[in-house]
Specification:
alpha/beta; Alpha/beta knot; seven-stranded parallel β-sheet; globular
Length: 177
Amino acid sequence: MKKLSLEALGRISVEEFKDSEKTPVCILLDNVRSLHNVGSAFRTADAFRIEKIYLTGITGTPPHREIQKTALGATESVAWEYSESTTNALEKLKAECYTLVIVEQTTDSIALQTFEATAGAKYCLVFGNEVNGVSEEAIALGDLALEIPQLGTKHSLNISVCLGIVVWEVFRKTHLG
């Protein structure tokens, strides 16, 4: 076994990424305060060719040194949009036929592994603030809620970890069968 070089990986350019077919998924960050978490969202979105990231409320926006530290250039490839209002952004996405998937522990949330993602369907994955989670206003607009089963003493994961797990699972179910 030998580690592959960057050339051997055959990565596409930023322009090729912009012109490529995207996974019909977007990510909405609802008042995420950590710029490192924002940068990580961009990097994960790039890895899975996510359509777009919506940054709302207090969520920081590029260009910013702290976002770039974890994004490693993904702010150049992944489309993004800022909206002061999470509600307005979600209403727009709902009007565009996205299924609004709230990633939060709610009375009606279902375990991530039981989520039946449909190939070709359009999903918006909503992730919330590091302390308060997804806002009540966003939850009220959601079509469904997902949670990652956890067995430890903590009741949550860091947003960047949670986002990576959820995006992978949706990608796996819609692209890999």
